[in-house]
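Q: A small favour: would you put together sequence and structure tokens for a protein?
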Amino acid sequence: MLQIVFNEISAGEISRLDTLKQLEILDAFKVTQDTLQNIDGESYGKIERAGTTLYRFRADDYRVYFEVVEENVIVHRVLNKNTFSDLLFRNKLPVGEDEELSNSKHFWNLIDEGKNAKRL
């Protein structure tokens, strides 16, 4: 299993959840090389843009967006699904969540903000 590292932003986002929800998400969030090589599109997804590979872990109503660097899973954001479901609904986009996010400038700005935050 790879080591999970949160940055200031993602740590703040997960800490705003109630304790049981935090434990539930962290208990289910198990990232291995096998997981990354066999993305199922359900629990785990893969988003790519300009040579950057970002992964998504889905836990109930939450999405954990992360990158793998060497032996570390760097968590950039922990967001409620409604953050993007509302965007897709309002724009009546008939595509999957991961596919649409890969083209969303707003999404990549959120990820870049997390990438540039101090790691804890």
